[in-house]
Structures are given as structure tokens and as C-alpha cells.
Amino acid sequence: MMREFLTGGLLHGLLGEAQSSVWMPPEASTFASDMDPLFYFILYLCAFFFVLLMGATLWFSLKYREKTPGQRTSPIKHNGRLEFLWSAIPTVLLVVIFAWGQKGFVSLATPPADALDVRVTGQKWNWTIDYPGLNKSCGPTSVTDPVTGLQGLQTDFYVPAGQPVKLTISATDVLHSFYIPAFRLKRDAVPDRYTGYWFTADEPGVYDLFCAEYCGQQHSEMRGRVHVLTDLEWRAFLKSSRCPTLNPDADDYGEKLYEANCKTCHTVDGSPKVGPSFKGIWGKTESLADGSTVVVDDNYVRESLRNPNAKIVAGFAPGMSVFDSGKLDDRAVNALIDFIKSLGEGGDIK
Amino acid sequence: MATTYIRGKQVEPEMEAPHHDVAPMSLYWKVFGALLVLTCLTVAVSYADLGKASLAVAMVVAVVKSTFVVMYFMHLKGDDRTFTFIFLSTLVFVGIFFGLTFADLSTRDAVNSEWGYHGWANEKGQIIERTAPAHGEGGHEAAAGHEAAPTEGHPSPEAAPTH
Amino acid sequence: MTTTTAPHGGAAPPHGHDHDHPSFLAHHFDTPAQQEASAKMGMWVFLATEILMFSGLFLAYAIARWAYPEMVLEAHHHLSIPMGGVNTVVLITSSFTVAVGVRAAKIDNQKLLQWMLLATIFLAGCFLVVKYFEYSAKFEHGLLPGRFYTADYIAKDLTVPSPLGGPHTFFGIYFLMTGLHGVHVVLGMCVMTWIYLRARRGEFGPHFFTPVENVGLYWHLVDLVWIFLFPLLYLVK
Amino acid sequence: MATTTVEGALAGAAHDHREPSYIQASSGLKAWLFTIDHKRIGMMYLASVWTFFFIAGALALLFRLELLTPNLDLLLHLVGGENAAMIHAKALDLYNKLFTLHGGLMVFAFIVPSIPASLGNFFLPLMLGAKDVAFPKLNLASYYLYVIGASVVVYAILGAGLDTGWTFYTPYSTTTGTAVTTATLGVFIMGFSSILTGLNFIVTIHKMRAPGMTWNRMPLFLWAIYATSVIQILATPVLAITLLLLVMERTLGIGIFDPAMGGDPVLFQHFFWFYSHPAVYIMILPAFGVISEIIAVHSKKHIFGYWAIAISSVAIAIISFLVWGHHMFVSGQSEFAAVLFSFLTFAVAVPTAIKVFSWVATLYKGSISFTTPMLYGLMFLFTFTIGGLTGIFLGALAVDVHLHDTYFVVAHFHYVMMGGTVVAFLGGIHHWWPKMTGRMYPETLGKICSVIIFIGFNLTFFPQFIAGTQGMPRRYATYVDQYTIYHELSTVGSLILGVGLFIVAIYLLVSMFKGKQASDNPWGGASLEWATQSPPIEHNFHDTPHVDTDPYNFPNIDRSASIGHH
Prior knowledge:
The structure holds four protein chains of four kinds. In chain A, 35% of the residues lie in helices and 21% in strands. Chain A is α+β, with helices and mostly antiparallel strands.
């Protein structure tokens, strides 16, 4: 009871519940239920001081407004005691807020031993989530984006309720940030480096997943859904065929690679998007931005993956991310080339 | 030059022409000689294989040389104290810049070695096995010989597992 | 114009306020001493900004050394210590000559002042010539910064960025530091030539030598940066 | 010529023979463009700074209108393209360029030079009792550096466009095809203008004070400008080297920030924020100075806690260099550094709190006249306090994990920047308008506009706090429709705010020519600038005033019941 009261919980309980939906999204993780009391504690503290200060300003303004010109005013210059009080009290309160804030933050970095290991990789404009132990990999699936009405890519992230999950986040090209408002958690995805946090989702449901670090053109559409599953649903998910891992031997390996990496910028129906369409591109002589031409063959595709800005097709802007051998090994590149070949030859179809 | 008095208190003493004490030529020669000697010293020391200490020695010599230049050639010695204050406070801010940046860089592995890992991917994109820096020295002195070298903890000795 | 009051205010100042206005005193300053003190303080504040700018590069060097100690130690063998040493001596001598020049201005020895300024400009020129040879040696061996790093016996080929933490980082920082320092040497030479021309017209003397002193201060700072740059890049093992 | 004491000058200035003011001293475009008179340079800065404010402000209105609906409905029509996907992609690019232009221009071209360069340039020598700044030619050079730098940035953004945000984070800024190099060159040049202005002010304050004006007889506006100049001197060079490294990274690929070449993007954030956090104090400290002047003069009462306010300005200037890490709590920085920066961030909050409490205490037992500047002063107390208090949420580590890079941050810095600096700038302009132009602004219209701006401002940015806590991320062109209500309120508010600011600009311009004649000291101010003609003569004072009281000794302070001692 005491702890509840001390952490503003009682206050939060009395007032908070009523407007928890006004300020905060639903609390869906243990970290959220730790963090919200601190948020409300700061909120009520600031509201109290703000009302005090604005009340004083309003009252002084009205009481001491200039009634007669040349009206005498008090010669008070300073008051040592008052000035000490209004320096010491804020300092003490701020130190309390600091101590409470850092406790929750540091605990994020020490996951329990039995946490489910999940690897998150952000690349230009979608997330890929791998479950190393469970042979599952939830890549971006194409879906009609409810906001823009266009074909977009969204990732579905499945998480068991009540079980700690350890996220190890990285990126392949630029900075992204894996942000789930309902869990109150976010951490930047930094290329060639691992960052991360752990959480326990305790409210089954479907929540939003955003990218919170500006990453270019479709930063605002790098969205996803987080599905917190009950035990029953989680076991069903493990057995289901959803989120298959990319199986290099399968014949549609090339197509799966295309969907995971190329689909956001290159279409297969002939219409150019951020980059040229792959339909009928194989063997076609493309005119480049610098006037020269190149025949689309193995070497051109391989070079465009390893060093994208080398030969850019006329009319398209540079900015494609680098797919070095770490992201797409030679086998993956060959599968991708086979897939492009299968989209029609000879460049006869515009 | 008349001096300005307000109610008997002299205001802005430096308002009247400061007398320029011209240092003897011999002082300049001595400082010049000292600088040359120190340069030869630091080059000679670099050939002796001191390993880790070579940085510290080089920095000490550089600081001594720069104090000579600043005190005598730039006349900071006999000059208005505000210039010395400006010079030293700049070095303090350079120290802050170094210290707090290294506070982050050198403690990345402190809490969780895998996430804090300052892993550098190699050509094939895997995080290469990165041994802790051989002699774990942190940043060196700032541009012009500031005294407090920022001290940082050693990054965790064991290397992170490769993936 | 100057307004000075007798010790107890009130009384008329001892002499008219429009005493002969020395040619070099700007209209908004009250006394030459105030003008000199202001100019010198302005110069010292400017030196503070220079120190802070170079500190950014020294931090980049420190971080490269901290992250890749082997790379820095191995890569800096390609820098020729003799050339660096000669440059250090050249800069220290030029510092000496400009200091003597300032002293000459104070004791109204116009001849010595002009010779010293010329000597400093000449030594700065030598510094740049030595640096030209150093740079051309680097260009030949392909020890260039970043993606232009083609020194074949270290990196394989250009398409794949040279191995992580490869020497390209060290040479990137080397060229940045010495390059920015070189730019400051050139700027120093230009300003000193302008001061030399004014000295030939006899503008400077014991009562007015602030421009010479400020150019001297700037030049000493350029020398200071090199005093730190030389051991860090060339010598330290 | 006997020296006139301050009281003498106050009483005598109004009626003796009127020398031609600095405006009438010489006319013609050449006389203005090549002037070295700090007052003219201040006015030219005021004109250029406000032009950039309205350019960047108009663009903010454009994408505020765009954000009215979750999808890119407005921008889709402005952009051509073959098919829906291509049009959508181009519209997203345009949105990114718009918010980068808004951020870049506002930060570098408007708010950093706003108060110090215009009001600071104009009033620093006047308040010091000096004839001009220490290096007038350098002052003109810094104005031209500012104009050249700003036009290079505008050229870069209007030409190839810039879509990295004003923060230029790598590796995006080193891989994108847009005009990053040109824009950084522009900002690099503007940085020099900032350094030179700071240098000029520091030397002027140290060396050119009127006889008798010791440090505790200096107006608090000058203390704030002094603290700002110290930050400008110590922080801007690091921005110069950061931009140089960024350009070298883009062109030569030296690999300090590029992870594939062995660099670390978080390192760029350290370099960048070492300048940019002190830069936000460059933006707010002059506003504190203006507010100290306005509240003291318009409540005709000695400022409460002179030394507390003066020293807290310098304290903020120093501590502001220790706290930059709070921009990077979730960026992959080490936990140790995050905790260290969070603690230091709370240290910088205390001096700001002391200032706000001292201003409110100044109102106590004063004689408050609700002129337009005073309305802006009181509005500042309201909006800046909200801005300051919301900073505490972002300083607490656990809360920042949720709120970082959301609209909560957008609302926080708009409450501090616009609610703080722009409101104080408007207050300062109205407060000193009679002295600058010799004419009065229309009082009633001024009051009405300040209320419109107050309502418009709060309606625009308060809903964004709630959007932020609900999880709406920053820099989003399209958003999920649960945030629509907040964006609708915010867009309506931004239109009201736009109208209010536009009317202010119009009536100020008109009042420069048609406003009624202003007396030399309309508000009964006691600092030196009120002791000379309005508009002031070319070399400021007939004869150098000497000072023997502090600048807040208003005539109607009741000294008989002297409770407070000196």
C-alpha cells in the first residue's frame, strides 16, 4: 500500500485510471506498468507547481496593477531565505525523479536468463524479425496499407504473453528505431551494431509497431503489428506455417528474397516506383544517368547490389542501400538473379 | 593619458596606455633553444621502444613545449589575467568534450556486453572477434596541452562471441 | 572623444576633450590603450574558437586510436619522421622570428620588424614545400583517405571497402588534420604579407603594434597545433 | 563638456536640440548596406531574420495543413508521376524536404541569430553607454556572412532539396542523394557569423562599458547576451568541424561515421549534440534577458534577485556543455553515459527554475501596466514554464524511452522555442520599438494580436503533447488514424497562430512610417538606452554618460520604507 501510494499509484489509481486512456496508450508490458506511475508522478508534480506559479502571476498582476500613474512600488530587491527555498526544493524533487527514472532504464539492459531470444533487423522501410531458436522468421508481407490505400509492406511480430522476450536489434543500412508505444519501449537500430532491451508483454492483444528514427522516404510507413498471444495461441503459432524461415533449397527462395529486400522499391508489374521495375528487365540495355548504357546481366545485378551508386538508370535517384555479402551471400544473389530472369527476357516488353 | 576617477575609485585601470615591458633578446634565444632541444628529445624518445608509455612521454614534452610558446612568445606571462583565463577555460571545455564522449564509448560493454557491443562487422557482415584494445589507453591530451587526461575504465577484457 | 572627470566629479576636466586624435585610434574607442586591449582580447577569443575546432579532429584521432590501436600503430610507419621533424623545426623557427618581429615593433626597429616578417613568411613557405613532398609521396603509394585508398599491398580491391578499421581511417584523419593545419598556414602567410606591406609603410611603432602582435598570436597557435600534431601522428608508438 | 549623470540625462534628453537620428544621418541604399553603425546593422538583421521566419513559418503551415488528414492528400496534388505508387513516393520526399527546410531555416537562419543579432546588436552599445561595438567592421562582416550562408542553405533546399532533417544524422546523410554538401556549406558559413557576433559582444562588454558601470550595474539583458556569446564562442567551432567531417565522410568516405567502414553513427550524434544542445541555450538565454527587462520596467519595480538571475545565466551557459547526451538516451549509447547525462540534465533545470521564480517575485508589490510588451512577458511566463516542465519528463530516463522522438518532443521544443524565444522576441520588439524607430506601435491592435497568438500557439502545440504520449512518432508524413483528432486541433491552432503573427508583422511595418511620434522614454525605463534620443543619434550619446546606480532604480520606487537593502 505504502509503495503504491509513494509511487503516486494511489493518485494514479484514483485519477489515473479514469484518464489513463487520455495520456497513455494501454499498458501492455511490465515495463509500461513500472513507467506509468513515474510519468503521472511527474505530471501531477508539474501541474501542482504550474498552477501555483500561474496563480501567483495572475493574482500579483491583478492586485498590483497600476491604479494611479506614479504609484509607489516596494523597494524589495531580494530575499535570501525565499531564494534558497526555491532552489533547494526543486533540486531535491529533481534528484528523486532522476533516481526513479534511471532504475527502470538500467533494468532494461539485463534480461533474465530464460528470455526468448528474438533478433530484429531494420532495413529501408520494413522490419524483419527472426526467432533463432524456433526456426521462425517474420518478414514483411505485402498488404493494402489502410492509411494510404496502396500496396504496402507491414511486419507482424508475434510475442508470447507473460514470458520475457529479449530483443537484439540491428539495421542494415541507416538508423531506424524499433518502437512499440503500448510497451513504452524503443531502441535505435544501428547498422553493424547490436542494441536491444527485454520486456514481458502481459496484455494479449494487437498493438502498433513504429519506426521512430527518421530513415528516409517511407519512414512513416515502416509500420507493423505486434500480436501478444496467449499460451494457447502461441503454441498454435509455433506449429503453424506462418513466418517460415527462408529455406535456401526451396525453389521460391529467390521470390521470398525479392519480397524481403527489393519489393519496397522495385515492382514486378512493369510500373517504375522508387527504382525501375524488374519485369522484362533481364537482357535489356538500360541508358544510365551519365549517358552511357549497360546490358542488364549477372554482373550488373551483382554490382548494383554491392555498389548501388555505381551505375544508376536514368530518371532514378541514388539512395539504394548497400546489400553486401553479409546480407545477401552469393547463393542468395544467384537465387535473386534466377527470379529476375523468370520475369521475362529480352527487354522487349517496356 | 589622464586616468578616470569616479568618487575616488580608479575605473578600468587598463584604460591608460599600458607600459610595454620589452623582454630582453636573450630570453627569446633561450626559449628558442629550449624548444629545439625538446623537439630533438621527443624525436629521440620515439625511437626508443617505450610501448604504452610513448604516448604519455610525447604528450608531456608537447605540453612543456606549448607552455613555453604560450608564456613567452605569446606574452601570456606578463599580460592581463583575463587572457590566461580565456585560454585555460577553453581547454576545460575541450576536456569536457573528450571526457564525456569517452565516458560513453569506453563503457559500452559495461552492463550488457552483447548489446553494448562496439562490434565492427567485417566484409562478410559478421561481427569480428574484437580483442580489447591492447593497452586500453583512452583519449590523449587535447589540442594545446590540457592537464587532465580523461580517465576511462578499460572495456571488458573478454571479447564478445562471434555470430 | 574622451571624457575624464577630476577625482570628485563636477570639476571641468584638465584639458579639452578633443586632443589630437591619433590616426590609428578608431572613433568609437576612448583611448589607444582601450583599443589595444580590445583587439588583443578579440584575438584571444578567436584563438579559443580555433583550439575548439582542432579539438574535434584530435578527438576523432583519439577515437580511431582507441577503436583500432593496431591499425594506427601499423599505418603510421608510412609517415616519414625526418620530413615531420624538419617541418617542426621550421615552424618553431618561424614562431621565434615572428616573436622577435613583435619585439622589434615595440622598440621601433622597423628594419628588424620587416626582416623578421619576411623570414616568417619564407619559413612558412618552406613548411608548405616540405608538406608538398610528403603528400606527393603518399599520393604515389595510394595511401589516400577513405574510399580512394588503393595502396595495393594493404587492401585488396576498390569495390569492397577496405577491411574494417583499415588504414583508410587513419589516412583519412591524417589528411584532415594536416590539411586543415596547412590551410591555416596559408591563411597565416596571406595575413602576414598584408602586415608586412603595412610595416613597410611604417604604420607600426611602439605606440601602435597590435596588428603585428595579433598576427603573431595567430601564428603561435598554428605552431602550437603542430607541436601536438607531430608527435601524435608521426612519433607515438 | 560636463558629464551628465544618468538622472540628468534622463530628464534632459527629451527637449534639448534634436540631432539627426541614426536613420536620418545618411540615406541611400549604399549608406545602409555598407554601414558600420551597430544600430543599422541591428535593423538589417531584424529585417532578414523576420523574412526567414516567415518563409519557414509559411512552410510549416503548408505541412501542418498536409497533416490534417492521415494520408498525403494535399501533397499528392502538388507532385506529378506516372502511377499512384510513384506519386506517393514523390509526395513523401516532398514532405521530408518541407520539414527539413522548416527545421533547418528556423534553427540556423532565424532563432540562433534572432535576439542577439537584432536587439543585441542595437542595444548592447546603447545599454553599455558605448559609441559602438568593439569591432564595427567585423559586425558588418558577420551580417554578410549570415546572409550568404542563409541564401546558400535556401539555394540547396530549393534546388536539389535536403531531406535529412536539420540534424543531418549519419549514415542517412552520407548516403542520400540530396544536396547535403551544399546545405552543410551554408550552415558552415552561418556558423562563422555566429562566432564573430559572439566575439564582438564579449569584447564590447569587457572593454567598452561606460565609466562607473561595474558588472553589477549592467542590465540583465546584457548578462544574458554575455552568456549567449560565451556559448557561441565555445560551441559553434565544434559544429564547424562536425560539418567538415560530415562532408569529408560523404565525398572521401573517411569512415569515421560510416559503420561499414569501421565508424560509428552514434559518434556523429556526440559531435553534433555537443554543439546543438548549447545552441538551444543560445536560443533561449537572450529571451531570458528580454523578459527580465520587460517585467522589471513594466511593473516599475526593481528586479527581484538581480545576482541570482545574472549568475544563473552564466551557470546555464557552462552546465549546458555537460548535458548533450539526453538527446541520445535510446540511440545505443552506453547505460553508464545515459545515467550520467540524465543526472547532469537535472542540474541545468535548477538555474532556469530560479529565473522563473524571480520574475514572478518581481511582480509582487509592483505597479503593473498591461502594455503589449507586458502581455508578451506574462505570456512568456505561461508558455515557457510549460516548455521547461515538460523537459523534466524527457530528462527522466525511463519516461524518455517512451517519449523520445515522438510529438511530445516536438511540443516540448516548440513550447520552449516559440513559446519562449519568439514570444520574448515579440515582447522585446514592442518594448524597444519606440526607441528603435521613434514611433509607437498601435497599442490596442498589439494587445489583440498577443491574445490571438496566445490562443493559436496553445491550440497548436498542447494537443501534440498528448499525441506524443499516445505514441505518435516524429517526422511522419502519414500516420495511423487514431492520432487524427490531435492533428486536426493542431492545424486549426496553427492557422490562428499564422494569422496573429501576420497581423503583427503588418502593423509593425506600417507603424514605422505612420506610427505616432514616440517620446524618448515612454515606459519610464532606467537603463542607459532610455537616456538618449529615440531614435538614437549616430554615436548614441551626446557625451559619454557615467553610471552610479543600477539600471532598475525607477523613480517611483518607494525608498522611504526601505525593506530591501542594496
